[in-house]
Amino acid sequence: MEHFVYHNPTRVVFGKGTIAQVRDLISPSEKVLITYGGGSIRNNGVYDQVMAALSGRDVLEFGGIQPNPLYETLMQAVEIVKRQKVTFLLAVGGGSVLDGTKFIAAAAHYQGEDPWDICAKEAPVTSALPLGSVLTLPATGSESNTAAVISRQSTNEKLAFLSEHVYPKFAILDPEVTYSLPDKQIRNGIVDAFMHVLEQYATYPVGAALQDRQAEAILMTLIEEGPKTLRNKTDYQARANIVWCATQALNGLIACGVPQDWSTHAIGHELTAFYGIDHAESLAIVMPALFRHELGKKQKKLAQLARRVFGVNEADDARAAELAIAKITEFFHSLGMPTRLVEHKIDPGEAAAKISARFRSRGAVMGEHGSIDASAAEKILLAC
Fold first, then answer.
1. Helix count (H) and strand count (E) of the chain?
2. What is this structure's pTM?
3. What is the pLDDT of residues 134-180, one digit of tens each?
4. Same domain membership, residue 18 and residue 142
5. Beta-carbon count within 10 A of 363 CB
6. Using an 8 Å Cβ cutoff, are 325 and 302 in contact?
7. Structural domain span for residue 53
8. Coarse DSSP helix, strand, coil percentages of the chain, rounded to the nearest 5 percent
C-alpha cells in the first residue's frame, strides 16, 4: 500500500427532510448566493424547501448553470459575488452545479489575470469562498471532494481543477428529492459513480486489501440497486443506496494508498468538449476500448474484479480480465447506456484525429503508468 493522507471536512447530512437543516448550517450573518441549473428545483419542490430554510436571510440567486458548466456563465456569477459582496455560496443541484460553484468560489478570490488559468495552467488556488451543497442528482461525488470540471465554450475545452479550499462545508443528501429525475439522468449517475470506482480500482495490485473490498462493495451495490431504482423511482432504500454509493465513490476514501488512472475521464472530457455528449456517456464509450488497450497492465485487477464482483469462475487471469470488460459493458447496456461512438452518430476516425491532435499539442501523458499518450488515445478512440 502506498503512503497517503486522508482528510475530508465535509459534513454529510443524509435522509428525508434534511434540507430544512440548511438554516442551522449557514450562519445568519452570511450573505448567500444560491446557485442552480435549469430550474428543475422550482418544479420538484427543492427550491421552496431551500428558501423556507433561509427565510429572513440575505439571499441572492444565480441560475442557468449548464450540465457541463461553462466558464463564460460562471464568470457572470463571479461578478455578482464581487459586486454584491457575497460571503457564502449554496449549490443546489447535481454535480455540474456543484463543480460550477466550486469554480465561482475559487475565481472570486483569484488574484491572477485570468481565472481560467486555474483549470488551464493549474494556477494555485490559495483561498476560496465557503460553500455548501444540496444534492439533487447523485453521480459525481462533487458534494464532498476537492474536484471540479469546467468547460470553456470559446475554446471547446473541458478541464478539471483540484483544491482543498473548495471542499463543501456541508452536503445535504435527501434521496427523496431525486425521485423526479428522468431515467437518463439516473442511468448516467449510476454509470458515472461506477466509473469513478474503476478509475481508482482497475489499475494494479498494491496490497490495499481494505480499499479493494470497499471499492468492490460500491460496485456490487450499484449493480444490485441500480436496476431497482430505474424500475421503481420511489423505492427509497434503492435510491438511498445509489445516493450514498455516488458520494462514497469519489470522496477520497477508496483512493487512499492506491494508484489511480483517470485516462478514461481525460479522453471522455474531450468527447464532451467536441461533441456535447453527456459525461457518463463518454465514459461508457471510452472504457471498454481503453481497458482492452491496457489489458496486460490491468490484468490482475480486472481478473480480481471479474471473480469478486461478477462471480466469474475462471482460473486464467487473461481470460477473466476480458470477461470483466464484457460484464461491465453488459451492465451498462442493461441500464440502457450506449457504449459505441456510432450510437451517438460520431465518426470514430474524426474523433480520434481531433482528440489525439489536442493531446499531442499539450504533450499529454495519462494513466497509472503514464503509458497513454496522444498516439494511444487515437488507437483507443478508433476502437470505440
1. 15, 8
2. 0.95
3. 999 999 999 999 999 999 999 999 999 999 999 999 999 999 999 99
4. yes
5. 8
6. yes
7. 11-177
8. 55, 10, 35
